[in-house]
Amino acid sequence: MRLIKQIRNLLLNDTFILCLILLNALIIFAQGFSLAPLTKKIFLVSDNLITLIFLFEIIAKVVKYKLVEFIKSGWNIFDTVLILLALPSLFYWIFKNGTTHLDYLLVLRVLRVFKFFRFIRFFPNIDELIAGIQRALKASVIVILGFFVYNFIISVIACFFYKNIAPEYFGNPLTSLYTIFKIFTVEGWYEIPDFIASRSNETVAILTKLFFILILITGGIFGLSLVNSIFVDAMVSDNNEELEKKVESLEKKIDTLLNK
To answer: 243 or 133: whose pLDDT is higher?
Structure first.
């Protein structure tokens, strides 16, 4: 019983779990290289044993906190989903030499890399950061939607303009949507109009360059800047409010001292 209790306490120890996650990350990273058969086998066994330990960790938490309390924590649900995504790799490792045909699980083994996302839970002040992101998304959802609609409209227009001239970039509305978004990010925006100009006459070339300059200014410079500014402002608004309260409290104390 004492040994079981010690094992349970170890599984519930965040430091131990974090060390396992780091070790697992290094093991999966190393598996991406060409390794000797014995080394590869050791890494594979270690990877799956760590997955098994993570599964026992989830079970230990459910036993300790009971299922109702367990699912009240968003982080517990997050960890459980990530471990479930890694289970196909474990099942394939256990049953691949048996009579059960689970070869299709070989493809799903890649899902084990999702265990890396458990790092997020151990970030300092992660709850405050997530709360800030949620607040920022709520505040900027209209602007983001407007930006997407503008991207959609421009991409459809560009598709009809350049579908035959540059099908690589505007062959269909979906490809055009991606191309216009790339231009909004100011990533190689000049290469596309130059490519179109090389396949067009002089008048079309000049109009095309003017059109893409307009797209860059409205969508890339003003559009993305507006989205970024609103998003960042909403993320730090909670800190600003806290600072304003402290300043206000300090001013009241100063006024009280001066009145004395």
So the answer is: 133
